[in-house]
Amino acid sequence: MKAEVRWSGPGHMSFLAHADSGHALVMDGAADIGGKNLGPRPMELLLMGLGGCSSIDVVMILQKSRQDVRDCVVQLQAQRADSDPKVFTAIHLHYVVTGRDLDPRRVEHAIGLSAEKYCSASIMLGKTAQITHDFEIRSLEC
């Protein structure tokens, strides 16, 4: 896996990131360091990456266990250390899984497998942060 991050130049604190997959995005610093709110902060991207990584796992595991999952949203909240390096110290993931006749035990199991075995982002960030999770199920009527 490779990526490239290029500074936009003097007068800016924004960067253009290119991934090996061919996708690109803009990152920007906070206004107090010269950013102009042109894109997410790098640490926000880490948090969003965790949410994406885990959501992919949860949906795939539920589909493989023949659950009729129709939507999966994960809401993340994080705290960071007060001093540098300002690593994440606590992260909470709240999953909202929608579908028909979803088995709560299977949803819980899928989230647990993601957190403990499959989600590389979760396992890596868990080295500095206490990661917790919970979930709710929203049922669709037939």
From TrEMBL:
Q: Which Pfam families match?
A: OsmC
Source domain of life is Bacteria
Which InterPro entries does the entry link to? KH_dom-like_a/b, OsmC/Ohr_fam, OsmC/Ohrsf
Q: What NCBIfam families does UniProt report for this protein, alphabetically?
A: PRK10738.1
Protein name, as recorded: Peroxiredoxin
Tell me which species this is from.
Answer: Acidithiobacillus caldus
